[in-house]
Structure formats: C-alpha cells, structure tokens
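pinned: reference chain
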Amino acid sequence: MPQKKKPKKKAALPIARKRTTRTRARPRKKSATARASNRKAEAGPAKTSSRGLAFHTVGIGASAGGLEALQAFFDATPADSGLAFVVVTHQHASHVSLLPELLSRHTKLPVALVRDGMQVQPNRVYISLPGKNLAILGGNLQTMEPARGIDAHLPIDYFFRSLASDQEGLAACVVLSGTGTDGTLGVRSIKGLGGVAIAQDEHSARYSGMPLSAVATGLVDYVLAPDRMPAQLVRYARAARDGETFQNADAALPDALRKIFVLIRAHTGHDFSGYKMNTMRRRIDRRMRVHQLGQPLDYVAFLQSNPYEISLLFQELLIGVTSFFRDPGAFVALEVQLEALLAAKPDGTPFRVWVPGCSTGEEAYSIAILAAEIVARLKRRIDVQIFATDIDAESIGHARAGIYAEGIAIDLTTTRLERFFERDTNGYRINKVIRSMVVFAVQNLVKDPPFTKLDLVSCRNVLIYLNAELQKRLLPVFQYALNSGGLLMLGTSETTGGHDGLFEPIERKWRIFRRKPSAPGVAPVAFPISISHGPLPPVIVPPSEPVGHGVTEPAAKVLLEHFVPPTVIVSERGDIVHVHGRTAPYLELNAGVPRANLFSMAREGLRAALRSAVRVAARDGHEVQQPNLPFLTGAGQKTTVSLTVERLANPEAMRGLLRVSFEPPEKPPRPAAEKPRRRSSRRRNDSDAERELEQTRHTLRGTVEELETSNEELKSTNEELQSMNEEQQSANEELEASKEELQSLNEELQTVNAEFQTKIDDLSRARDDMRNLLNSTDIATLFLDRDLRIQRFTDQAREVISVIPSDIGRPVGDLVTHIRYPAFADDARRVLDTLVVHEVEVQTNNGKWRLLRMLPYRTSHNVIDGVVVTFVDVDRVKRAELLAASRAFAQSIVQTVREPLVVLDDALGIVSANRAFLRLFQLSEKDVEGRTLFDVGGAFFELPRLRELLGDLIEHGNSFQDLEIEHDFPGVGRRVLLLNAQRLESENAATGHLLLALTDRGGEATGFVH
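pinned: its structure tokens
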C-alpha cells in the first residue's frame, strides 16, 4: 500500500548508513544522503505518531445545510482513497446524532461516532459527538467539554487548530455549508503549518456564510462543489506520498529557486533569497502539489504564464500562525517586565513598542490590551504607541480593520472580550481605545529603516525564517532601535546567539532580553540593510538518483571521453558534486559531521596541495599539474600521486566547476639486495625530501603571490575607504544642516497632524451621527454607485434584502431580495439614466407593504454618482386604506339589500342599520344613533329568548337562525318576523360585530318553536 512507502523515504539517514558500511570508497553518497535527510528533518517529519503510517487526515466542518453537502461529498469518495475523514458539525448537546446512519447510506467507508482514545485510521469516517469539542493528539481523538464563559461554541475551529498542531503538513480541512465564521481561524492554522484547505463554492452551498468567510482569508487552495472535492484531495495526497517535488529534482533546484525568486521580486518588490532555503523549498513544493506539477522548472513556466499564482505563492511564503495572546506563559512573563517599565515612566511620556512581522495584527493588539490593563492598574497617564509592521499589505489591511472571526473567543478571557471588543456581524471588532494605540504600516524589515527610541521590540517567530546572515544584521538593528534598558521579545525557537554583548536575558524560557548599553567595539548599524546575494547552496545529487539526471550525465560524458583516472568534480569551495572511480586511497571520510568537501576529506599530505591547485585553476582558468606528491595512505604507508586540476567550460551545466584527477605512480619500486636497498632507500629519501621541498616552494610562491595581490587590493580598498570617509564627513555636515530644517518641518507636520486628527474626529462624529440618524428614521435605505454596486446601507435594509457588510461592492442584482418586485434593478438603472424619481408600492414576501422610492444620488459638486433607494413601511396605512375601502364596499352592499339588516357591537349597540330596517320600524338614522337594539321600535326586541341567544352569540360565537317574533306595526297590522344573527370577524377591528337580519313572513305564524 502507498502508506507503507512514505516512512522509507523519510528514513534517509539509516539508508545512508547501510550504504556506507557496504562501500567505504564512496563517502560522497553518505554525505549527500545525509544532507537530504537533514532537509527532510528540517521540513518536518511525516506524522506517523503511533500509527507508523503517513496519511492525510481530513477535517470536515459543516453546519446549516451541511447534510446535503456531506452526502454529496461521500457519494463521490472512493473506498480506497487512503484518507481519514473526521466530520465536525454544530449540534446541541441534548441532540441524538443520526449523522452516522445518514452518511453510511452514501459511502462504503465505515462510519462511527467518536469515542475517547479512538485511533484515526485511513479509509474511515469519524463523526464528532453533539455539544462536544473534538481534539486530536498523536493520531488519537479526544472529546472535550466546551469552555465555560464563551458565548460562541465553535467546534470546527477547535478541531481544525488541534489537527494542524498534531498533523502539520498531513492535515487537510474542508469547510462546507453553514452560517457564521466557524472554521475561519482553523483554516489559518492548517495553512500556517503546511496543510491544504478546501471550501464549498457559494453556488452549491445552501448557506454560504462559513465557506465565504474561509475564502475571504485568501488561504483556501480549492473552491469546489462537494462532489468534486474527494478527487482533488486524493490527487493532492498522492502527490505528497510520492515525495517532495524538489527532492526528486534536486539537480534543477538552485536554478529553479533563483528563477522563482526573480519572479517574486519583479512582481512584489520583495527578495526571498535571504530566507531559509528549507522553508522556501517546503512551501514552494506545496504549491506545486496543489497544481499537480512534478518538476520545479515546470512550476517556473506556470508562474510566468499565471502572474496571479505569484501573488498566491507570495502569500504562501508569508503565512504565519498567529493568535491573540499566543503562548499565554510568554505574556504572563512579559506583563511582569512591562509593569516595571511602565511604573518607571513619568506621567505624560510615551511608551513606544515596535512589532515587526505583525501579520494580521493579533500580536500587536495583544500587547496593546496588556499595556492598557497595566496602565489602568497603575492609574497612570502614559501614552502607549505601538508600531506594527509587515511586508504583506493585505495582512496590514486586515489588521487595520480590526475585525476578527468569532473563533478568537477561544484565546481570550470573557473579561477581555467584553472590555476590549465589540460584537460585529459574525465576529468581533477591536474597540476604539485599543485601535487608537496601534499604528499599522507596510515595512520591509530587512530593507527599510527601523523605528527608534523604543521601549519594547516584539519580533516573535520572524527570525526563524531568515538565514544566519540576516539574523546577524537584524539584531544590531533592534539594539539600535531600543532605549537603554528596553526589552526585546523573540519567539521560543529564536535566540540572540552571537550578540551577547548587545542583550542580556531576563526570561530565558520565553526569550525576553534587556538591551545593554552600547558596548565598545560594536559596529554601527548601516542603513538600509541589504540582502546578501551570494551563491546558493551547491548542487548535491542524492545517491539514489541514477546517472543521466542533472549534472551527472554531462559529467559522465566528459570523464569517459578522456579515460580519466579516479576523479572528482568540485566547486571552487571544494564541495564535491560527482565522484568517478576509486578515490579511497586519496580521500577519507572526515570525523564529526560528514561533509562532502574535497579539502576536509583529503588524506594527510594532499590537503595543502589541493587547496593551492584548486585556487590557481579557479583563478587563472588553465590546467594545473602537480606530479609526484607524497602523502600517507590509510595504512600509514607513504606513497605518491600526480594531481591534475582543470576548470571546466563545457558543457553548460558544469561551467565553473573543476575536475580534480589523481594519477598513481606507474611502477612500484623494485626490491633489491640488502646493501643496495639501503643506498637506494637513502637516495629515495633524498629524492622525496627534494620533491617535498620543491612542492613547499611552489606552494609558498603561490601563497606569496596571493598575499601580494591581497595587499594591493587592501591598499586600494583603504584608499577608497578614506575617500568614502571624507564624503561621509561632508555628508554628515549636510545632514546636520538638514536636521535643523527637519526639526522645523516636524513641528509644522505635528501641527498639521493635530489639525487632521481634529478633522478625523469631527468626521467620525458626523459619521456616527449620520448612522444614528438613518437608523432612528426606521427607514430601510440602500446607497448604490453608478454600477448599482452597494456602497452602504442601514440596519433596516436587511429586512428587505439579504445584505451583510461583506456584500459592500457587490452588484445589488446578485443579492436575494425579500420583495415581490422583479424589476428592481431595471428601474434603478432607469432612474440613473433619466434622473427621474421613481415611486411604487411593493409587497414583501411575508405580506408587508413598503413604499419603494428611487432617486439619484447627488454629490456636493452636483454630480450624479449613484442611486438612493428607500423602503418606507406603509403597511398600517395600506391596510387601513384597504379596510376603509372594504367597509365602504360592505356598507354599500348592506344598503342595497331589501331585507332589514342591523349591525350591532358586543354591547348590542347599533352600529348601522339599512333603509329596510328603518322603514319597517318607521325610524330615522337619528333615532338609532347611539342606542341599543332594545331601545328602538317601542321595545319590540325586549324578549328574554332574544337576549339569551344574543348573549350566547357574543360569548361563544353560536349563531342562530329563524327566531320567530310577532308584532303589531302601526298602520300595517300584525306581522311575523324571522331573526337570523351571526358574528362578523375582522382582523383589523379590536372587537367583532354582530349582523342581525329580519325576514318578514307576513301575517301568519310559521309554527316554528322558539
């Protein structure tokens, strides 16, 4: 199975030992393999844990609408993918999960609820328990109780962050349908440690809140429909199991890296050649796996044809794992030191902090919160100024906004969350007090000048990405920027090694140092700091690579053409690139850490000659021969060898390298009789001494020539330095004059800055007033630009159209509206074209009426720059109009009916009576106005049975029919009437009305019983 091959590739060092014990004559292979092993070790070992296997663990987060997405995902998942799947959803603790049963119908993989200690295995599906957090340690799943005091339960973020810490590069996360931002911080953690992230596209998601929040980070590798995700995960995992791309094409690595760095510098202006190569290899290799590219030069071609990929690679190289109060113990230790510094500060003085490499701002805001708490506790008036910088403009923009996902609640106490944050849509916003303490700026730490007069520099987990040369250059910069006694805080994996004269440790565990006063002999800092563009590490071909790849193929051709003796191909520094023949008599593996270097491996007697010959051949470009050089073999015997060193010009792949050949003596010395042997031995000793003397003279001549050349160069350099010193003195005088001008300009700038700050405060206050005014009108309002894209909106607009803050800038036609008005976008465009105000009454999906008004947006310069759309709530007015119209219509019907009708209220008062009723009882409208039924018609209706039936109708709603009543009418005679009554219900009336109808049956009774 492919899982069993991965550990063999990772275990490069044991393989190298096995080969070394088998063939001692080929020490280069051990060194090359050992270097490959070191690269693997620095890149991070495969997460085998207790499993002994290396496979990707896929965390899947889903919430509202996620069941359909999960079913589509597992419908497309093969049974032999080699991946493990852990599904985390939002479910209440009291809910009995039916997810295992539902998903088992859509996959052949075993599906099970998580139990404590359950070991993750490939080709299985694990379902989290409802209401629990899920963690993973050493490949074993653990259920955890959610922390108390945290409003938002974010199980997806919790598991993704745990998965990233445990599996690193073998972690994958999938964000499916759901509302909110759960999973967003987890995506950052997964990508920060080399994993892969996938999100569901918004068109296939029933609720796109969670996927869109993840995509907004810019870190998601693939945005796909659920049924396309499994195939992409399998391809990515297979590429990872096949080994690192750079590891398989090591010969092309330096050239490809240079080209990649050139493209990044041309696109972004930032040079990564001073960063650690292992980190660059690992992250570039991950981008190649994303695009299924097998060779580094193929990726170079892909970058040249896809400039957007350069931006993505730039973001990949800058990904940093950060969070609020990361490493809480470090901030506890820092709090003690900061309190001492702040207590010593006089009131009214600034406390200045620099946070280089701030990423998205969590570190800077954490220090600001800590300082605010200390200042409040000390009851002091100290102006805390924090300068947070990073080379990534996008991260700086995110930090300036100060809006973070709900997942930050995991890293903050409830007190800090309530005191320093404000609830925002689907997240939290830094409050104005903390935000005003931090200034964010784009800055290249290794090129731009630093801030000065600082009390604290917090540069955590930045130096670990830089090579040793850049680290040596930056630490003096930090010392220069700090006040005497100022603090430097580094990451737990960083140190001030080699600069003990600049800083003294005060918290060794958390890497907190105090600046020492400037020590004598400390070199001044040069600005700007420049990155060294020295040669990249030499090309070392792994021993497992067959001849015919990279440099080895042209090397074999050259050696075979000349029928060379034992030969090595080396660089100018003596680093071995290729070995031909049996070189064991002349080279041996050096003690200590093995190095594939010719000078360190040369046997006794050859080292000086080799250095001299290589130096001369590299300098002059011609072949250097040194015959009959004496040296000691491995057995301690003395012998000779002829040495030939030649600088290679062809082929192109080997240009600049050197060929070093060892030619043994043609004939060994003949044995002779005893006495002649003594004379011969004496002559050989004299001859050997002469050869050694000649060799020493030759070496000395070369050394003297080099010394003379060096002296001349030093003299020339000294003259140049003297000239530069004079120029510097002149420049210093000019700077002194400029300093006074700058001081005057600085005062003016401070005045202008104060004016601008006042205007900003006024604008902020006016903006708050306008927002409160718009919200207080209770009118839903949309502001659209000329392209009908949303510019701003009031809170009430969400009742009419599905809009959130992240929708600003989107076309209004792309959003879902809750009104029955399909011509919305067309009418808005017509208003923009004709400048004629448009009004129409529209109805929402829930039956509410709104008055929609569209009018042109006119700027202060009388320029039409968009459309203003308002939705006025006219539901009550509209319904009142409809009710009045309905009543008028009903009244007209009642008046036209020929039968006597009367409308009563619940107190049996007459509300209205038609003409037939008035005519029957010979009454006028004034006679019935304000009177009860029993007061009209000479107490005609004063009947106990009628009162009883009407009371039952009022109380229980029981209507009655054909109640017979006899009465003598003046001028008419005795008449028989039938009474029918029922309740009239109205949703707009406070109480219902009663309708009483009378039917004239003539002079004879019907015989009805009543």
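why pinned: The chain has a mean pLDDT of 77. The longest helix spans residues 674-776.
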